[in-house]
Amino acid sequence: MASLEVSREMKFKEGEETCTLDGTVDFRGNPAIRARSGRWVAGIIILLNQGLATLAFFGVGVNLVLFLTRVLQQNNADAANNVSKWTGTVYIFSLVGAFLSDSYWGRYKTCAIFQVIFVIGLVSLSLSSYIFLVKPKDCGGIDSPCQSHSSLEIWLFYLSIYLVALGNGGYQPNIATFGADQFDEEDPNEGHSKVAFFSYFYLALNLGSLFSNTILGYFEDEGMWALGFWVSAGSAFLALILFLGGTTRYRHFKPSGNPLSRFCQVIVAATRNWRMKMPSSAEDLYEGVGKDCSNNGVRRILHTDGFKFLDRAAFISPQDSDNQEQGCKSQWRLCPITQVEEVKCILRLIPIWLCTIIYSVVFTQMASLFVEQGAAMKTTVSNFRIPPASMSSFDILSVAAFIFIYRRVLDPLVGRIKKTDSKGLTELQRMGIGLIIAIIAMISAGIVECYRLKYAQKACTHCEGSSSLSIFWQIPQYALIGASEVFMYVGQLEFFNAQTPDGLKSFGSALCMTSISLGNYVSSLLVTMVMKISTEDHMPGWIPGNLNKGHLDRFYFLLAMLTAVDLVVYVACAKWYKCIKMEDRENEYRV
């Protein structure tokens, strides 16, 4: 008997050394072997895939408004409106992809399917541009408009770009989470690598967009649209092949079913028990048995205080006890603690998520007002003209630099100061720092605008380059936005991945994307409100067509004030927030 127990213990220890502890499985559905799956081999494949896919996506998105005006002959207002609708659709599709991934398909299958759709959309766009749209050949440059197009040709174009939106939107929230799945957070070494992965993921995203904003942007600006789109299609196809090539190496979490029904079950069960007298100890609440304990191997969530009304869903009434003895139970009457805590986790995340929307309003200015501001500055060096949109390259370079500074300098330094084994700044602390840097960025942009106005020609008709202030004075505001991204968006990715239940990880990544989407909409609403108020009494307003007659600086300072208020609210929400508590599988297995 003793020898049998020793044998079991030795086999268990051997399995413990070789199998992951977070419940992941390999591509055959067996428990994932640590040495043969995941880790940085799979992580690097996913990082390369992300870089190539981002290059492909921004190869279309970065100059889409120019394509609509130069090739399809749309006016500026219609083109900007269509681009906004298309961009918003990308982020809406991210929720669709996250739902399918968490509920039914799993992250690998979801990423593969939506990448195929992405490639089909880009190939369709390239073919329609080459055959139908860019006619006569080499049209679509600054001084070479294209001919008119039939309704069928326009319809094919919109079908193609919305396939691109569907493919990228469904893929994007899942690939970041799938990359994080390759690292077992129950293992200290892999847990540290998982945190680092998000920084490198955001770096890969920015490096991909850097190539699109510079090289591809230049070719497309010169009228070589079909070439630019074919490069994007080739990059997306290469990304898909690379992703499929790593199939045998990936680790997977099994989908846990429809989260909407689980949420509704908790609400209904808690409502049914609202009159019941609750036990004084959480130990008396229903923990679940068998499949109720966890869904498809995901970890159980431990009970937390707060939202006590929802605890009633796990209260075991006499009728529930009788039903259990008879083997007939309904989760619409009785839910396990893990299911109740899933709902609590999402409710706690919502205030933090709402506080990130104002930051996204600041972030979106890089693609709009920063560019308009730069166009009204001196953009020439000798005989070379600097495209105002290319200044975003300094944002990307700043992201790369600050990721290195944070990972190699700041994080270890904070760890030494704390004199603990912690990983340095927490995700919530980093997001707060991101808001502070964003405030400084808006103040910097406002000060630059004050000086731009000081050296501007007020009476100009076409005001591009009307100020003698060099466009290079915009570098600080771009660099500060890049630094804030490292703290806010990377921290946000880590936070939502760590604080969402195992069955809702993709939804957590989708929250980051919807924050950016809502930031676009709030920014548009804010500009509309500011212009409506500031143009009363026949005034030109803060952001008129001729920026030299407006006060863009006041709008930047307004954003700084709103972000400061948001920071105060965020600090209050962060102090109130309670982290998710997962079961310790490693200790559980060793008992």
Descriptive report:
The chain is an all-alpha fold. It has 19 helices and 2 strands. The chain has helices at 2-18, 39-61, 64-70, 76-105, 107-133, 151-181, 188-221, 225-245, 259-272, 308-311, 318-325, 337-364, 369-375, 392-418, 427-454, 475-499, 505-534, 552-576, 585-590, and strands at residues 380-381, 384-385. The chain has a two-stranded antiparallel ribbon with strand order 1-2. Helix 2 runs antiparallel to helix 6 (151-181) and helix 5 packs antiparallel against helix 8. The protein is globular.
Summarize the structure.
This protein has 19 helices and 2 strands. It is mostly helical.
Average pLDDT, to the nearest integer? 83
- Give the distance, in angstroms, between the N- and C-terminal Cα atoms: 19 Å
Shape: globular
Number of helices: 19
Q: What percent of residues adopt helix (DSSP H or I)?
A: 55-70%
How many individual β-strands?
A: 2
Structural category is mainly alpha
Rg over C-alpha atoms, rounded to the nearest angstrom: 27 Å
Strand order in the largest sheet: 1-2
Assembly state of the chains shown: single chain
Give the ordered list of helices and strands.
Answer: HHHHHHHHHHHHHEEHHHHHH
Q: What is the makeup of the main sheet?
A: 2 strands, antiparallel
Low-confidence stretches: 1-16, 586-591
Residue fraction in strands: under 5%
